[in-house]
Amino acid sequence: MVGPVRLLVVRLVTWNVNSVKQRLPRLLALLDRHDPDVVCLQETKVVDDDFPFEEIERVGYRARSFGQRSYNGVAILARAEPIEIARGFPGDPTPEACRVIAADVAGVHVVSVYGVNGKALDSPAYETKLAWFDAFTVWVGDRFDPAEPLVLAGDFNVAPDDRDVHDPELWRGKIHVSQPERDRVAALMDLGLSDLGRQAAGDVTGPFTWWDYRMGAFHRGWGLRIDLALATDPVASALISVEVDREERKPTAGEGKPSDHAPVVVTWA
DNA sequence: ATGGTTGGTCGCCAA
After folding, report:
1. Catalytic residue among A37, A104, A155, A195
2. Partner of A86 for a Cys bridge, out of A93, A102, A216, A248, CB 3.0 to 4.6 A?
3. Distance measured from the CA of protein residue A70 to the C1' of nucleotide B10, in angstroms
4. Which residue, counting CA atoms, is nearest to the C1' of nucleotide B1?
5. Pick from A100, A110, A214, A223: which is nearest to A155 by CA?
6. Class for domain A11-268, per CATH?
7. Which residue among A61, A92, A104, A114 is the active-site one?
8. Is-catalytic flag, A114?
9. A154 CA from B10 C1′ (Å)
C-alpha cells in the first residue's frame, strides 16, 4: 500500500493571463522558467474546445479548463494528474460566468479563482461582487477541511488592505479597496486560510501584482496586490517563498505583449 | 487620475 503522493517541494504559479491565446508563448516560457508543479490561470477567454491543450501537454503538463467565450475563464495546469475536478460552484450569482475550477493535484486541493471585478461602487456589478464572495465563501466552507492542504489562488479583484495599494488616498472609495470588499476577503480567510503573499512579504507596501495598461502605470509603480494565494495551515506552515514575477509584466519580457497582471510564484515544502 | 490600453470581436463591452 502507498499513501497519497506527497511532493517534497511544491511550486504553484497563479497568473491572470488576459487571454490564453494572446499569452501562449509567454505561458510556455513561464512553464520553462519556473518549472511549476501547478499553475492556476484566470481570464483565459476561451471555451474549452479552443483551449491550447496540445501545446501545453507537449511541454509536460496536464490541463483542465473551465472557459467561456470572450470573458472570464479559468484553468489548472499540473505535472501530476488533476483529479476530482469541479467546474463552478452551486449558488454562484454569476452562473453564466466561468470563475472557479477546482482539482486535487498530488494530494493538494487547488482552486483557481477569478473574482468578480465589480466595475465601480455605484455599479450593479458591485452588489453582484459582494454576493459572489458570500456564495463562494459558503461553498469553500462546505467543500473543504481546513486541516487538509488547500490553496485558493487567483485574481480576487480585492486589495486586502492599504499595504496592497500604491496610493491608498487616491484609491479611497474606488473598486478593489472598499471596506465591504475587504470584509468579504476577511470572511473567506476566517474559514482558516492565510494570505501567503502577505505572510511572505511581512508588513511592507506591496508587492503589487496588477498595473493598469494605461498611463504607463507599471513604469510609474501604480499597482495593486489583488492576485492572492490563500491557503490552509498545512500549506501556510510549510511556506518557503512567494515571489511576483515582475519581469513578465514588462513589454520586453517575451513574445507579444504582457498581461496587465504579473504571475505570482508560491513555493512550500 | 482614469482624456490612457488591451482583448475579443467586429458593436462595443469588460477590465
Report:
1. A155
2. A102
3. 13
4. A170
5. A100
6. alpha beta
7. A114
8. yes
9. 30
- Can you give the pLDDT at residue A61? 98
Contact A42, A156 (CB under 8 A): no
Distance in angstroms (rounded) separating the CA atoms of residues A80 and A3? 15
Grid cell digits, residue A120: 465601480
Entry pTM: 0.96
Sequence-ordered list of residues with C-beta below 8 angstroms from that of A107, at least 6 positions apart, any chain: A4, A5, A6, A149
Supply A88's cell numbers.
Answer: 463552478
3-state secondary structure A92-158: CCCCCCCCEEEEEECCEEEEEEECCCCCCCCCHHHHHHHHHHHHHHHHHHHHCCCCCCEEEEEECCC
**Contacts of residue A47, Cβ cutoff 8 Å, sequence gap at least 6:** A67, A68, A69
Q: What is the pLDDT of residues A87-134, one digit of tens each?
A: 999 999 999 999 999 999 999 999 999 999 999 999 999 999 999 999
Within window 41-80 on A, which residues have Cβ closer than 7 Å to strand B? 45, 69-72
Nucleotides of B strand lying within 7 Å of any protein CB atom: 1-2, 4-9, 14-15
**Residues of chain A (134-173) having a beta carbon less than 7 angstroms from strand B:** 167, 170
Q: Is the pLDDT of residue A86 over 70?
A: yes
